[in-house]
Amino acid sequence: MPKVRTSRTKPPPEGFEEIEGILEDYARTMRDAENESTEGKRAKETLWPIMRISHTRSRYIYDLYYKREAISRELYDWLLKQGYADANLIAKWKRTGYEKLCCVRCIQSRDMNHEGSTCICRVPKSQLARSQVFECVHCGCRGCSSAD
Hints:
The protein is an all-alpha fold. The protein has helices at about 15-35, 50-65, 75-80, 85-95.
């Protein structure tokens, strides 16, 4: 028999009150992006605003913990566990060459046209034709290579 889930969750750790307003703003803009009309857009384009908001929220939490050291490890772990940030994306940002990665899907080779390749947004802009504008089909990114 499966476990019965209860609504007992730990209260947020100390320091959450300071960033709660900003996280609520991100949640509000996420709701607006989810409720936005999809008329006139390609199927893949409808998710791009959601991906961008998720990326910026994760980057905000990453910067708070790793760059500015403004939050505690306990609060950082709690935020990841509650889904405020993408833990897989943050893990990639800590690696060399992935500091500006837009989404984890762009480095997965199984979703790409050619075997073993990565997304077009991971190619440095110096190696692309200057006259063309490339957008990632997954998230709409126009270039997240660390070599740019």
